[in-house]
Amino acid sequence: MNYYDVVIIGSGPGGYISAIRCSQLGFNTAIIEKYPNFGGTCLNVGCIPSKTLLYYAENYHKAKNMFYKHGIKFDNLLLDFKKMINSKNNIVKKICEGIKYLIYKNKIKSYLGTAIFKNKNTIYILNKKSIIEKINFTYAIIATGSKPMELPFAKIDGKKIISSTDILSLNYIPKKLSIIGGGVIGIELGSLYNKIGSDVTIIESEKNIISKMDLDL
């Protein structure tokens, strides 16, 4: 059985940064991640891919609708959406590899699997349904992040009803797109697909969109 001073569950920004700092301070540190790539939601299916695609979409939108005002014109301007997705994937992959290197460089032991607490000082690491490792620890940091919520009346089927994760890896541009939720993620994704040609409708139960933000926004 392995022992660690600190075990971090989750390798997103909260997790891998905590792991690196703990190791730098001299703690024997391990990090547990259930998905194949480090980086968590933000890097793999959140901030990084969405901001990358939004940047591409903004450039396309400007080239199509604004550049002519400055004397810049295009003949037969085309959008290769599959290439956009591939470019986004390559950027995500490169950053994932960078985080993997940082974990290795800082001598942090990494485990692939799901963490289950047996007691306050013992964790089982599961791969599917079998226990692949048992570790003891003194301190644990839980940094498991979040994932899209499924609504009871709109079950995600990966086809007609998809999540904010799925929409970042589509291989086509939807002609019409309805987004349930007018928070930051919904507005960002709606803006992205609107700029590349989708007819977007946002459905929000609150009085205002991005209701948690300043009203000026």
Automatic annotation (TrEMBL):
Keywords: Disulfide bond, FAD, Flavoprotein, Oxidoreductase, Redox-active center. Pfam families: Pyr_redox_2 (PF07992). It comes from the Eukaryota. It catalyses: N(6)-[(R)-dihydrolipoyl]-L-lysyl-[protein] + NAD(+) = N(6)-[(R)-lipoyl]-L-lysyl-[protein] + NADH + H(+). Its EC number is 1.8.1.4. Residues 4-214 form the FAD/NAD(P)-binding domain. The keyword Flavoprotein applies. InterPro entries: Class-I_Pyr_Nuc-Dis_Oxidored (IPR050151), FAD/NAD-bd_sf (IPR036188), FAD/NAD-binding_dom (IPR023753), Pyr_OxRdtase_I_AS (IPR012999). GO terms for molecular function: dihydrolipoyl dehydrogenase (NADH) activity; flavin adenine dinucleotide binding. PROSITE patterns: PYRIDINE_REDOX_1. One of its GO terms (biological process) is 2-oxoglutarate metabolic process. Its cofactor is FAD. Belongs to the class-I pyridine nucleotide-disulfide oxidoreductase family. This is dihydrolipoyl dehydrogenase. It comes from Clastoptera arizonana.
